[in-house]
Every structure is written in structure tokens, then in C-alpha cells.
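Secreted protein (Paractinoplanes rhizophilus), 109 aa
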Amino acid sequence: MSRWVKSALAGSVLAATAALVPALPAAAAPTVPCFKGYICVQEAKGVITAVPEGQSYAFPAGTEMAGISNQTAISYCVGGNPNFQVTAGQEVVRSQPITGFQPGRFCLT
């Protein structure tokens, strides 16, 4: 078999294999839409709450967050189950109940 035929067969087998393997979706993590200078919470139901830097916010009845994005220059403490800190520029994407957030570097656990 000539070298050209071997190359053509190898290419055909590779193309056929690639056609049979389904394409995998991009592994992009979801992100919370937020402007610079704000801290934003995306609730599980899709509502986004954006609060200017330095302000606190409370969800009186609590809410289920899908993610939080801190696009400010300061850290925030997030009250929830569990409580956690979100530092400047950080985004946390996970589902959990929260009651609110406030500026702070030392958060109760």
C-alpha cells in the first residue's frame, strides 16, 4: 500500500471517530452579572440584587442564592448557612440560603 493511501485511510478513520464522539459542552462556570463598584447576589429564582460598595443588605425572609459577585474594593461577610466571606473581586457560585451581607473582614462562622 502506498504511503498516500495509508495517510488517507488514517485520516478517514480519525474523521469517522471524531464524528461518532459527541461534542462536549464548554466548561465555562456560570457567572453572576455585576458592575464594578457593586456587590451582586443572584437568587435561585433568577432575581439579581445589586448593592453599591460599602452598603449592607438584608433579605428579611432569607433567600436561596445561586451566586454572589463582589466587584468592590472591600470584603463582605455573608450571613447564611454557613456564613462566609467574599473578598474584593471574588465570585462564589453555589446554592445556599443567605439572610444578607455587610462590609467586613472578620465574619462569624
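DSSP finds one helix and six strands in the chain. The radius of gyration is 23 Å. ok done for today
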